[in-house]
Each structure stands twice: as structure tokens, then as C-alpha cells.
Amino acid sequence: MQPVSRERIREFGDEGIVDREDGVAVEEPLRIVVRSPSMPTPVPFATTMRTPGADDDLAAGLLFTEGALESGADLLSLSAGAARELEKKENTVVATLAPAAFERAHGRRRETVIGSACGLCGSESIDEAIARAPRRVSDGFRVLREVLFAMPERLRARQSIFAATGGLHGAALFDAAGTILEIREDIGRHNAADKVIGAAFRRGGFPFSTSALLVSGRAGFEIVQKANAAGIPVVASVSAPSSLAVALADAAGMTLVGFLRERRFNVYAHPSRIAPPANAPASPHVLSVRK
Predict the structure, then answer these.
(1) What region does 26 belong to: left with phi over 0, alpha with psi -120 to 50, or beta?
(2) Where do the domains of the chain lie?
(3) pLDDT averaged over consecutive 10-residue blocks of the chain (291 residues)?
(4) The domain made up of 143-289 is a member of CATH 3.30.780.10
(5) Are strands 28-36 and 92-97 parallel, antiparallel or unpaired?
(6) Residue 42, preceding bond cis, omega within 30 degrees?
(7) Would you please indicate which residues are annotated as catalytic (active-site) residues?
(8) Please, which residues have CB within 8 angstroms of residue 279's CB and are 6 or more apart in sequence?
């Protein structure tokens, strides 16, 4: 399954009507099922609407940020449609988990389809999600304002599917120097975050505590919750955060940056990780600060 579909459209504009092809982001369901060596029959974990591509990263990321996976040893294997009894194998990922991880996953299954705009759909309650957080993140990471200013353009430059469709979110993990460590795209911003976190988790030994997560859309609670589950200390968004996202970041000791665009940003929680240049005066680019 390709991430971009070519569709015939009729474009209306001041200069007339034109029939042409346009690229449209593909949205398809992905079914994630789990099993263990002692429980070989797959058990449904979640079904999420996503853009095809990096499905293994999405499955690993969702299992990790939901608390089913705690270390690389918990994930024994990932396979696309490996179970013979599953239908639509191209849209199914089977995760074989260590017994303890399987039990955690079994207790955190989603009962409904996770839509592309909803990262918590199917959870028992928002209180349950909050109860698993906050995880206090490391305080040793710092990032320069100039590095933050450059991050959105670096993300956009690497969003190849967005360039073809104009319809995908992007998420990227950056180091303190502003180098992109992982980048993924998806029609859902929470999926993009799960994909990029899952890619880093699968790589093993990834320094989540010394990285920043940038998302191309709104920084809602589910984005901050996923970063918190991974121990990422800085979350930045080109758009607005929600009040619940701010509250979670504040409680977890996370730095939350919003409206990061055109060399301006707001800091909503824990601004101490934003390091100005040496001997620099207070910058008017930092519009607001929440301690």
C-alpha cells in the first residue's frame, strides 16, 4: 500500500476550471494484534486509522507509549500479517511480546478504532491515561533558541509525503544541535509521534532523555503523554497546546513549546531548558513563559 493516491480532480479558480490529477494522502486502518510464546493465538490490541508506511514503527511506538513495552527485551518480533488466520494481512501487524509485556498489553487494549484525529480513543478514561503519568523526565537537556527556530523548516524539508499531498502531519526527534535523529509522517499527528518514537525504540539504546520532539500540528494531551512515556524532556509544536497538555508537562517537569514559527515561540512549562546564546539579553522572541 502506497502512502499517496493519485486522484482525478476538477479545480475551480479565478482563471477557470481545470481537470487534473492531485496527490491525496492515503488513510487506511491498521490492526495491531499481540501474542506471546505461551499464548500463540493473536489478541487484538488496537486498530488505528493511519497512512501506510512504517507500520512496524507505529505498532512498536503505540505499544511503548501505552505502557505495554518497557524495554527492548519486551518486544520479541514484529511481522505484517504473519498469523494465517488474519484477514487483510497487509493492514495487520502481529507483535510477539514477552509474557509480562503481553499481560500489560492485554490489560490496555483499545475497544474502538483510533481515528486519525484521536490519540486516546478507546482508552478506558482520560483519568486512566493521567494515572500512568507523569513520569518525571531528566533535567540535564538544554537546547538553544536558535536551534528551536531552525527545527520547523528542517522538519518541513524532510516531509516528502506532505510535499506531495499537503495533508500529512510530521514528527521528528532532534538532538541538542538540531540534527534530525528520526522523522516520520502520518495523517494523524499522534500516529506520527508513535511512529517516530517507535522507530527510536526499535533502534535500541536511543537517548530519549537528550532529545526534543517536534510535531507539525497541535500539541494536545496525547502528544505530551507519548513524549512523557518515552522520557522526552522537550516537546515543541508549530501550533497551540491544550490546557491538559500544559498541566501534564508542568507536572512531569517537561518543557512545552508552542507556536514555534517565524522565529517566535511561547514556552508553557519549564522554560529553563531553553538556553539563550552566551551573554545574550532577554529575547523578545520568547512571548510567554509558564513556570
Answers:
(1) beta
(2) 28-131, 143-289
(3) 83 91 88 93 92 95 95 93 52 95 91 58 56 75 96 90 74 96 93 97 91 94 94 96 93 96 95 80 46 39
(4) no
(5) parallel
(6) no
(7) 118
(8) none
